[in-house]
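User: Predict the complex with zinc ion.
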Amino acid sequence: MMSTNRLQNETTWPFYVFLVGSMFCLLSSSMCHLFSCHSHKLNILLLRMDYVGITVMIITSFFPPIYYIFQCSPYWQIVYLSGITIMGIFTITTLLSPVFSTGKYRSFRAVLFMSMGLFGLIPAVHAVILNWDEPERNVTLAYELAMALSYLIGTMFYVTRIPERWRPGFFDLAGHSHQIFHVFVILGALSHYGAAQVFLEYRSRLGCDTQ
Ligand SMILES: [Zn+2]
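Assistant: Here is the predicted structure with zinc ion placed in the model:
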């Protein structure tokens, strides 16, 4: 775990933004699956909240890496963080609108999630070029690659509806695509948590000269 006295000099709010976002995601998923059997009306609302929670986690997960990597260039902090926030708000609005919540727009919703993930590639490539000589490069890259893979594989299960498409009815209680999707979302959040700790530790050691 993080040692608190080392972090005293470093800004910790971006880290907590991510923590609150991922806790909101896990809470809304739990609420959704606990109470979705209540009624059809509540079921539809809760299922939307399930995806809104994941979107909130994706947006907030951008805060620690972008903030700490580009701490010495506030211009890029603003560009990337406002970019992902605008994309996220657009996705949430889409998820909450009844028209786009139907099965017909399933792939469209998947594309929205994918594009938020792909947007992350731009600051990622930028960061790798900026910090090519840093010893932490490979560790954070490995963590973030694990995160990206988790989200991609999770979305793939969501879109293809594997394995229940092969044996309809057999996976109704356990093992269907939506459950696998949630497992990969948690794996993605965990590996991102690992990366965020490295960024935070790095900044509390090095700081920023221009400040
Ligand atoms: Zn769910």
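Residues 52 and 173 are 24 Å apart (CA to CA).
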